[in-house]
Amino acid sequence: MRKLGIILILLLATPAAVLAEGERLYWGVMIGSTDYEVRGSRLYVTSLNGRVGWDFLSWLAVEGRFLTSDSSSSSSLNVNGFKIPYMGTAFAKFSLPANRTSRAKVYALAGYSVGRLEFEEAGTNVFFDASGPAYGVGVEIFADDKNGLNIEWARMVDDSDGGDDYTITQIGIGYVRRF
């Protein structure tokens, strides 16, 4: 699990100039609300998500992401604070319509996430490693052939730990830049 996280971080750190070739490379940033839900209780944080992707075909891309968040104080789940120090995700991205010239695209994501959650309980920080399947849907709308906005819902982790099912979900809006 830790190796996958390291690979994702290295993918995101790969210089754009090395990969840039004929509008196949893209990157983006997204800000959103991310929540952790377990046993019917939720904790919310504001998150920042960076992404780098490569279009293999007009309808298929591979994307690496890195998410981090601020901390949030909450009385829910008997914790004083919650944050996501890091979460790396690898996605396959399936787009419609299946051409590169369309100004608007709907897409679906399928992949896997690895990350760390931090809870503050009674003045002590407790860390929890989270990993699991990830999926989502979104829309990209481009103002020209290079610059666009995206709106997205993504389930970053959908798994269980110690018999408790939990999810980490992000809803966000972002900027996309194609090369």
Q: What does this protein structure show overall?
A:
With about 180 residues, this protein is mainly β. It has a domain at about 1-15 and about 70-85 and about 115-135. It has 2 helices and 9 strands. The protein has helices spanning about 1-15, 15-20, and strands at about 25-40, 40-55, 60-70, 70-75, 80-95, 105-120, 125-140, 145-160, 165-179. About 30% of the residues are buried.
Please mark out the parts with pLDDT under 50 across 5 or more consecutive residues, or reply none.
Answer: 15-21
Mind describing the biggest β-sheet? 8 strands, antiparallel, barrel
Structural shape: elongated
What number is the mean pLDDT? 84
Task: Tell me the β content.
Answer: over 45%
Rg to the nearest angstrom?
17 Å
Multimerization status: single chain
Order of helices and strands: HHEEEEEEEEE
Tell me the span between the first and last alpha carbons.
Answer: 31 Å
Q: What is the number of strand segments? A: 9
- Order of strands, widest sheet: 1-2-3-5-6-7-8-9
Number of helices: 2
Counting helices, strands and paired strands, the structural category is mainly beta
Helix content: under 10%
